[in-house]
Amino acid sequence: MLSWQKRLIMLQRKFDEVVKKHFPDAMDAKDTSIHYLGKMKNEHNLDVSKVLMATSVCSDDINIPSTTFFNVLFGPFIMGGLGGLPFVGQTGMTAYAHHIPDQGSAFIFYGPHIGVTIDGDLGKMYRPRQENPGNSCGALMLALSRFQGSNDYKPVLNDDDYQQMKLEESLLPYKDEVLKSENPQKAITEATYDIIDKKIHEYLKTCKGEFSVDKVTLLGGIIINTDYGLDDYFVAKNFEVIDLKSL
Ligand SMILES: [Zn+2]
User: Fold this and answer.
1) Which H or E element spans position 53?
2) How far apart are CA 82 and CA 165, in angstroms?
3) How many angstroms separate the alpha carbon of residue 229 from the centre of ligand 1?
């Protein structure tokens, strides 16, 4: 084996340790897709050849590899904006519902993301061809720095920075808990997961009449970004197959 291949494997193993120290249940993105597509097919009898995927993950380019692991599915319909919040709202959920293949089903993959460096720093990552580490998720780390900067900080909703301000407004109820936490970077990411999870469930409920299919599969969690060229990881927090008739 060539030395660069060995180095890559060693680096991937090291990342595996670093990621699992912070998130013991994390699986790499490829295992995640195999595991959950298998569950959909084998435990829920879903025909994965007729699934339209929607994503509600942050706009950040670094998340593309994590979502393309599901590329056997149609889509994605992109619901997420900064932080991963489903900014497309009820209109987006309705449009998505209308696009699902006949006799098919829906799969929504959602959640915030957080970078990690080889030294174990959460909230940071080395991006492609950049020498210094940068923030990941940038939107969440910006919100965190504003919360840490002033106790009275209040986001002001405006047309020109709508998503960031709305994200920060949604995070305000979690602010004290986040700031008191041992690891605020992780805590703000987990708070954002809660916000996205609630919104997805809420829009499904209000838009359930728009779906021509009965089953919607949800896979929500946290995407963990490692170095460029290495696998990302995912910690699943919610996997459920919802029968829309029961909502
Ligand atoms: Zn982000």
Assistant:
1) strand 51-56
2) 10
3) 18
Name the strand (E) or helix (H) holding 239: strand 233-243
Residue 4 has pLDDT above 90, yes or no: no
Distance (angstroms) between ligand 1 centre and the Cα of 51 equals: 26
Cα of 212 from ligand 1 centre, angstroms: 32
Residue 84 alpha carbon to ligand 1 centre in Å: 7
Q: Which two tokens stand for residue 186?
A: 């992780």
Which CATH number belongs to the domain containing residue 187 in this structure? 3.40.1050
- CA of 34 from ligand 1 middle (Å) equals 25
Measure 142 CA to ligand 1 centroid, in angstroms. 10
Confidence of residue 128 (pLDDT cuts 50, 70, 90): confident
Domain count, the chain: 1
How much is the average pLDDT of 186-212? 98
Q: Residue 2: pLDDT above 80? A: no
